[in-house]
TrEMBL record:
Name of the protein described by the UniProt record: Protein kinase domain-containing protein
Gene3D superfamilies: Transferase(Phosphotransferase) domain 1 (1.10.510.10)
Keyword terms, alphabetized: Signal
SMART domains with a match to the protein in the record: S_TKc
Lineage: Eukaryota, Fungi, Dikarya, Basidiomycota, Agaricomycotina
PANTHER family: OVARIAN-SPECIFIC SERINE/THREONINE-PROTEIN KINASE LOK-RELATED, SERINE_THREONINE-PROTEIN KINASE CHK2
Domain spans labelled Protein kinase: 68-338
Species of provenance: Lentinula boryana
Keyword Cell membrane: no
Signal peptide positions (record): 1-19
InterPro entries: Kinase-like_dom_sf, Prot_kinase_dom
Amino acid sequence: MSMLLCSLCHIWTIYLVTVYKGCRLYSSRPLDAYALDESEEWWVGHFEYLRERGYMMRPRYRPGWKPSYDPKDIDEGMFAEDGQIMFHSAIMDALRISDSLVVAMKRVSTGEDQIAALFSDDAHKSDSRNHCVRIIEALPVPGDDAEKILVMVWMREIMDPRFRTVGEAIQFLKEMVEGLQYMHQNNVAHRDCSKNNMAMEANAMYTRRYHPVCPKKRYDWSGRALHHSRTRCPPRYYFIDFGQSRMYDPSQPRGAEYALKSGGYTPPEGLADTPCDPFSTDVFFLGNLIRTSFLDGDDYMDEPGISGFEFLRPLVKDMVADDPLKRPTMDEVAPRFFDIIDKLPWWKLRARAVKKDEFLLARPFRAVYHVLWTASMMLLLKPAIPSPNLLH
């Protein structure tokens, strides 16, 4: 029993240290977890090709790399820059050599990029309502006609760093409402539009580049990645991952689809195994995002929710109705959402976004600091709902 307790304490200690450092823990990997695996070797094998095309991967993924740590020492690998392992075998980060922009490179099957390419063309990318991730370029894979490498700007999780104000969160929701409405108006259903398939382009927020695997640290591992607030340097939000998306012929009736599980949640029509309009399922997932991330909390992700968003409850209730036929369309959701937002007073938008599990004794001190910070943002003429520039 004592040995078991010691083991559990050791695992918990490693977890706490990892969270503190802002890194991901790969507890399912063996002790030599920080040596290259098969998927990483694939990227190393394409290093020269990608460099010729203008992209430089981190030292770990360069031919002849030797670790700066003992590969069998999980503690050394965890805290070394070249021990940071990409968390998805099909995705790799790199610097664009021409301007040092951090990009994501994703291996996809040929044809899987069609929807992302559609919303990245000149006709769509300049439209401010379009919140589909932009493809910088699609690279052929040498000797493999079945795959491509999509190059995109590297993005962050939408909740990291946290929302400081109600207005900052409203900007995120505004862009997602606009974006999904825009997709539907162009006859495309995302079908997997939960939080895990939304991302934030936040380069303007950071004084120096952040590390793709440990985003709380600088890219060069020289210290903590410092950032401005979303109010001061607004980010921009995007839908990503169109592997399950469908495009429909507007001249034909839209076919029913079986709903997918997304972000840990299955819509009622999926539980009933009943096909329905995929646009209605998209509405459910977007409503469920608001419900779980802001109103009620997310049991699946162990997140408590954020106070101050009850004004969205009636709209969300309609969006997540059990009967898909009773849900509003995105063309109905959008004007209702904007009408609600337009009626919010400025002080509500600038109010602090408080997590529901926040330590009570810390609230008075954080409230005072928030008042001072809010005054500084108002002196700088920063709007309560941040207004980002369009990313081309």
